[in-house]
Structure formats: C-alpha cells, structure tokens
Design goal:
The chain is an alpha/beta fold and 331 residues long. The model has no long low-confidence stretch (mean pLDDT 96). The chain binds iron/sulfur cluster.
C-alpha cells in the first residue's frame, strides 16, 4: 500500500461502494495494529487564544467569551490520584496562549513525568523555540499541530493560525527537534472544493508525521461561519478511510466532532473506518463550557462512552501507551 494515493472520486462514494471503502480501511488498520485502540485523555487548560480562526469560537475576536486558565494543583491531583484506569497517555491542549503554556502546561508536564507513567503530548500552537524546548525537556514527547487546510488562499481567508507556510515550517522544525508530530485537517469547510480537500492529502503525505486527524467542519457557536452548512459525515469518513489507506502506519484518531457530524453513530463509524485512537475528555467542569471549539452544548466523551464504543466495535483498549509504541518504532 506504500505510495498509494487516493483518487478524488473516493471522497464521493456512497452506499455499497462506501461500505467497501471503509471496510478496506478498517482491514488495513487491523492488519497493522490488531484490535487495539490507543486511549488518551485530554485536558483543555486555557481558552485564551491569540489567533483568530473563523471556524473556532475561541478566536481572539470573540469578546463575549469568558476566558480562563486552569489551576495546576487541582489538575495534578486529578491526574495523579483520580484518572480513568484505561488511560495510557495524556494530551494537554489550549488555545494559542504562551502564558498558559509556561504557567500551567510546563509544571503539569513536570509533575506528570515525575509521578505517573503516562505518555505526554501537547497541543499548544506555534510557541517560541525556547518554550517548546522546555516542554520537551520536561518530558512531553508528542506535539499535535494541525495544519488545518492545505489551500493557502482559503487558509488566509479563514485566518487560520499564522500563515500556512509558517505552520508547515514549524511542523518540520518540531520533527527535526525530535518530537513525534501529529497533524490534522478539516473536511467540508465553506469554500473548500474537492480539489482543495485533496491538497490536504498531498501535504500530509509530504510531512514528517506519526499521525493525522480529519475533523468535520462544524459551524461553531459565536463564529463568523456559524450560519454555514456543516460537513457531512459521509465526506468526513471517506476522507478518514482514504487517509488510512494512504498511511496504514499512522495514528488516526476518532475525533469527538464525529458525534456532531453524525449524531448517534458517527463516532463508532469512525472506529469502523480505521481510526485507532480515542480521547477521553478530562477538562475540569469550570473550563469545559467556555472551551468553545464548536458548540456550547458539548457532547463529552467520558471513559464510559469511549470504552462502550470500543467494545461495541469488537476492539480493545491498548495496554501499551502510544508513547511506548512510538518509542518502539523509533528505537
Ligand atoms: S482553532 Fe486553535 S488557534 Fe484557531 S482560534 Fe481556535 S484555539 Fe485558537
């Protein structure tokens, strides 16, 4: 399958053809990873953001949003003493907020490295080289940084973070510094043609990544795109399947927004399309409602929901951490 690249028509398939595509993607994932699915937690630690993406409610121009940063001590307590048993890794995520990165994330990474065996990833945007190096020295090993969309014109119009060129340069720089880098893109954005969606596959294939996500566009509350039409579940799943066939070895998450694109069964269908990572949301209640990636009324993926979805698809949570798995590949 190496060197395989999806044809544009795959994005449109429906009915039996779609089922066959998704079945092929799932078979490729099973061949590579078996039945195991990595289970990672996420804590969202700040909804301050200096960027202004049109598709996100945390954009700096949303003055109506109450902004918060989490308390390190209570997070450490919860994650050291009271975390879900199935968790092997943790992702610490925030808007692009260098203050939170230094004052919340850095001490949290240090404490988790000292007191747990969790694999640690961060998703914090493009921070300075020195702060990024401090996070790495503290023990974070994976950096999640989505390139969002590979169409430079649309990227500019939607005010995605910085410029596309900067984003790509940063991804390459992170990989060069020894980070495992995972990226991602959005399917079904307003103004995104099929050709421009295909550009995402070309870019992803060129980048030094260990994984990539496909997120359905969701018209977010309190955003300039709030009145637009959301991405269909079919398109999103077809893109996920194409990505899995393109890169059998990648970590491809079932993103929580699949619950919004396909209420009821979207998330499980993601697992049926070759996804091999699930995320339990552990954000403290007081921050959760204002962490406005999509809708105020969030559908929270608890441990119970994740384990139910994994079991219902005949899969099982990995006992090995994602960090340990990636280390094994590298070493
Ligand atoms: S998508 Fe990320 S960088 Fe863009 S506004 Fe939202 S939190 Fe900030």
């Amino acid at each position: 399958m190496d060197g395989w690249f999806p044809e544009i028509g795959l994005l449109r398939v429906e009915g039996d053809e779609q089922e066959a595509l998704h079945g092929r993607a799932m078979a490729v994932a099973r061949e590579r990873f078996g039945r195991r699915v990595f289970v990672r937690g996420v804590v969202e630690v700040s909804n301050y953001c200096r960027e202004n993406c049109h598709y996100c409610g945390m954009r700096r121009d949303n003055r109506a949003l109450e902004r918060h940063r989490a308390q390190v001590d209570s997070l450490v307590r919860m994650l050291v003493e009271d975390r879900p048993a199935s968790l092997t890794d943790l992702n610490i995520q925030a808007g692009e907020d260098p203050v939170a990165a230094r004052e919340v994330v850095l001490p949290l990474v240090q404490a988790l490295r000292r007191e747990t065996s969790l694999g640690i990833s961060v998703c914090l945007g493009t921070l300075s080289e020195s702060l990024t190096g401090e996070l790495r020295d503290a023990g974070a090993t994976t950096y999640i940084i989505k390139f969002e969309l590979a169409d430079a014109g649309l990227y500019r119009r939607l005010q995605a973070p910085g410029t596309l060129e900067e984003r790509i340069r940063h991804i390459r720089w992170l990989a060069g510094q020894g980070w495992n880098v995972s990226s991602g893109f959005i399917a079904g954005l307003p103004g995104q043609t099929e050709e421009s969606l295909m550009e995402n596959f070309r870019l992803a294939a060129e980048l030094p990544l260990i994984g990539c996500s496909v997120s359905p566009f969701v018209p977010g509350d309190e955003t300039p795109l709030g009145g637009s039409e959301g991405a269909g579940l079919g398109l999103t799943l077809n893109a996920m399947a194409a990505l899995r066939l393109m890169r059998p070895d990648w970590v491809i998450p079932a993103v929580s927004a699949l619950n919004l694109a396909g209420p009821g069964n979207g998330y499980r269908r993601g697992l049926r399309t070759g996804a091999n990572l699930c995320t339990i949301n552990l954000t403290p209640d007081d921050l959760r409602e204002d962490y406005l990636l999509y809708k105020r009324d969030r559908f929270i993926m608890t441990e119970e929901r994740i384990l139910e979805a994994i079991a219902a698809e005949g899969l099982e949570p990995s006992r090995e951490s994602l960090e340990g798995f990636l280390c094994g590949i590298a070493g």
